[in-house]
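G., the chain you wanted modeled:
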Amino acid sequence: MANTDTPTFQQINRGFNAVFKPNRLSIGIVVPIETYLRSPVPTMNRHLERARLVEDLGFAALWIRDVPFNVPAFGDAGQLYDPFVYLGLLTAHTERIALATGSIILPLRHPAHTAKAAASVDVLSGGRLIMGVASGDRPDEYPALNVPFADRGALFRESFDYIRQMGEDKPSFDNAYGKPRGAIMDMLPKPSGGRLPMLITGSSRQSQGWIAEHSDGWITYPRNTAMQGQIIQDWRAQVHAAGQPDKPVMQPLHIDLTDDPNARPQPIHLGMRLGINVLRAYLKSIEAIGMNHVGINLRFNQPDPEDTLKRLADEILPEFS
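Predicted structure as tokens:
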């Protein structure tokens, strides 16, 4: 069952506070908002128009990915554009919707640049940034940046700590990425809520206890509902054991909506081909086990993207707003 002990999650910024609520599931959309079945590279046609439509229809968040290189073996180039550049564009073309990353690959970026870019997006958007972070799972990218793939777990922790400390006033510390000296320098802007909301994806080469203690939430993957319920229960037990307040958990979900609203689910990569009534029942079932947000991905969705977004808004969002 969903946790009922805490009336609200810790309040961090406008986007995090709106998206994550205990015992409730909200729905976001993953960019690119299009079908691209036969190529790893999307067209990005009408991408701003569709982003604005997602906001106008009442979805909770737009999710942007960090794919620095097009690796054919990986099979997905994401939204093509650098995530922080693209978030800056979305900041100027939206007003209310949360802007989220799923996820920034911390070992492949210097954390000073990541901290500055993320805080800039957060402030310019009026506190709408949610930053998912990860250690990365594409080994081909690491040699291109002369970063040892085997070191990504340790580098992730160092980067995470660096970004956290950059939100403080005149931070002074020493880690693998550098030695900022607060007595003579500072980084601006500071995040709108005093720190960036940072959600950790998967294990990111860390223990579950470390994630429970240091993150603001957890991004996991779709699973059988019974198994997912046990995993969420274990996550919340780890958070409690770390002496932390309750923290949210979310997952992505690829869908392919059929014309038949009652079509039974058939597995696709990280999701299902199914009817909209079955999708609604599935989302209610994961809300009941404590899932707080789902980022819907339309890459494998065969109907028109605008029609699908409107169907979801009309027939799904009223149950999860």
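Residues 14-319 form a domain with the TIM Barrel fold (CATH 3.20.20.30).

Shout if anything looks off.
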